[in-house]
Design goal:
2 strands; Arc Repressor Mutant, subunit A; mainly alpha; 143 residues; globular
Length: 143
């Protein structure tokens, strides 16, 4: 029971701290109009490289119709672009524009800022232990 309680508390703290780290990002005028859902799309496109609509829908566990609607909005905002797939002209690939790469880079920086802040409170041994535990979590839970 102690494990679950501690892990629950840690997950709540992580969520709050990462949200706080992102708060400056979300108040910047150029990023204010990006919804949380759209940030998920931008991060997924970044992680996948240049996915097709199908690949993005599978990654996010959304329907292709939902993906299509959201991508249209991100295209209109200038964060992503759509091109024909060189392998299959019937398929389209989605990629980040320069503006999209900048947005995701700043989003990632917010996460890294949290990691740097956390590291201040840990010994070298604790950092190594946290890395080992995190690698187990990534290996077993990454989608």
């Amino acid at each position: 029971m102690k494990f679950e309680k501690v892990l629950y508390e840690v997950s709540e703290i992580l969520h709050e701290e990462i949200t706080d780290s992102k708060s400056n990002l979300f108040t910047q005028p150029e990023f204010k109009k990006i919804s949380m859902s759209q940030w998920c799309y931008l991060e997924a496109i970044y992680a996948l490289g240049s996915p097709t609509y199908t690949q993005l829908a599978e990654k996010l566990k959304y329907t292709k119709a939902s993906v299509s609607i959201s991508i249209k909005k991100l295209i209109d905002k200038g964060y992503v672009k759509k091109d024909k797939s060189p392998e299959d002209q019937r398929a389209s690939i989605i990629s980040l524009t320069e503006k999209g790469v900048l947005a995701v880079g700043q989003h990632i920086e917010a996460h890294l800022e949290f990691a740097r802040n956390l590291q201040k409170y840990l010994s070298d041994e604790q950092v190594e232990s946290l890395i080992e535990i995190s690698e187990v979590i990534i290996k077993n839970f990454k989608r």
